[in-house]
Amino acid sequence: MSQPLDPEMFTGCSHVTSPFRIGGKWTPKIIRCLEGGPRRFSELAVPLRGITPKVLTETLRSMERDGLVTRTVHGGIPPRVEYELSALGRTLLAPMAACCAWAAAHLPELSDARDAHGSPDPAPALARTHETGPGRKTGPPSLSPNVEAS
Fold it and tell me: 26: how many CB neighbours lie within 10 A of its CB?
């Protein structure tokens, strides 16, 4: 039998909300959209099909509060607002690329485990990477252009 968990195992940790917010649905996608440089709100909404303006606004505000993006207001009528990855936000690109590579390598195993368990796939937008016919594969979209599915 394994040892019981130590009730004090998180004593040294901060009692505030975890700083890790990149696991949400939209944050990694927004990071990917901003990888190439600053973008306006309306530009971000184009590839993020399905996101409401309210959720995009909330996510960008949260990312700005966490120091992942900077928001720059340019003068004019109407004022032009751009969002850009901060230096801190750019540090997430390499770990996200590693996550994409891991997903590309292990998505078939995850899908098989979910099928065996009878649980629905929580990420239906990620197609399986199983062979679907002679020479044909489907797979998840890469969050980084430097990572290719194997």
Answer: 19
Spatial separation of the C-alpha atoms in residues 146 and 69, rounded to whole Å: 22
**19-38 per-position pLDDT tens digit:** 555 667 899 899 989 999 99
Q: Counting beta carbons within 10 angstroms of the beta carbon of residue 118, is it exposed (0 to 12), middle (13 to 18) or buried (19 or more)? A: exposed
Cβ atoms within 10 Å of 100's Cβ, excluding its own = 21
User: CA 25 → CA 28, 79, 86, 115, distances in Å?
Assistant: 7, 29, 20, 22
Tell me, what amino acid is at 118?
Answer: G
Distance CA 21, CA 26 (A): 10
From the list 99, 133, 32, 148, the residue with the least C-alpha distance to 110 is: 99
Query: pLDDT by residue (tens digit) across 46-58?
Result: 998 889 999 999 9
Count each helix (H run) and each strand (E run) in the chain, helices first.
5, 5
